[in-house]
Amino acid sequence: MSPASRKRVGVLISGRGSNLQSLLDAAADPAYPAEIALVISNRPGAYGLQRAKLAGVPTAVIDHKAFPDRESFDAAVDAALRGAGCEIVCLAGFMRIFTPGFAEGWAGRMLNIHPSLLPSFIGLHVQRQAIEAGATIAGCTVHFVTPDLDAGPILAQAAVPVLPDDTEDSLSARILEQEHRLYPAALGWLAAGRVRIVGNRALVDGATAAGDLLSPRPEGL
């Protein structure tokens, strides 16, 4: 795939950036339909910034504490993304909630990965929520970002079992393995122009059934 045909992606992080690394690794393949053009952190010390620099990707720190309100912070992030020519935005452990205007400005072009099988268990500590609820299956979801928290059209999901002796940490680790497989696959589908949003559903052209979007084989599409 020629560099000119690859979609430019901005990734927003707040921490260690393990999902960022999975996207960087995927984008290192010239045949992948997306390139990581910019990594933005709202926390100056986020380790994910080092991952981006090692991959030769430009970075920016936009500290939310330096802004008087959410609107001005969002405006600064938006300006940085557009200044870098980003066409798609991926949230990868970004611990800020956007204003409706920002989400609407990137509608259909902004993805998030959430460590539960949405619409179940939104918000924080979702693995603990799953264990406490007695769930036997957990997992992760890649979805489009909308003004409502964790409520946008679901693009892809991967499931894992909840084992009898699971702790929040052990279940989180098992889910994270699937996140690292699912997020690059979902971004690739979007960047390749294979995704259509119909109502509150995200459909992938070429998928033979909804099961094709589930663990264990997102790369099979």
Automatic annotation (TrEMBL):
UniProt key word Transferase: yes
Associated pathway: Purine metabolism; IMP biosynthesis via de novo pathway; N(2)-formyl-N(1)-(5-phospho-D-ribosyl)glycinamide from N(1)-(5-phospho-D-ribosyl)glycinamide (10-formyl THF route): step 1/1
Domain of life: Bacteria
GO BP term, example: 'de novo' IMP biosynthetic process
Binding positions for (6R)-10-formyltetrahydrofolate per the UniProt entry: R70, N112
Major enzyme class: transferase
Entry keyword annotation includes Transferase: yes
GO molecular function: phosphoribosylglycinamide formyltransferase activity
Residues binding N(1)-(5-phospho-beta-D-ribosyl)glycinamide: G17, S18, N19
Residues annotated as domain Formyl transferase N-terminal: 7-187
Pfam (any one): Formyl_trans_N
Catalyzed reactions per annotation: N(1)-(5-phospho-beta-D-ribosyl)glycinamide + (6R)-10-formyltetrahydrofolate = N(2)-formyl-N(1)-(5-phospho-beta-D-ribosyl)glycinamide + (6S)-5,6,7,8-tetrahydrofolate + H(+)
Residues at the site labelled Raises pKa of active site His: D150
One Gene Ontology CC term in the entry: cytosol
Keywords: Purine biosynthesis, Transferase
EC number: 2.1.2.2
InterPro entries the UniProt entry points to: Formyl_transf_N, Formyl_transf_N_sf, GART
Active-site residues annotated for this sequence: H114 (proton donor)
Family per record: Belongs to the GART family.
Function summary: Catalyzes the transfer of a formyl group from 10-formyltetrahydrofolate to 5-phospho-ribosyl-glycinamide (GAR), producing 5-phospho-ribosyl-N-formylglycinamide (FGAR) and tetrahydrofolate.
Protein name: Phosphoribosylglycinamide formyltransferase
Species of provenance: Thalassobaculum fulvum
Gene designation per UniProt: purN
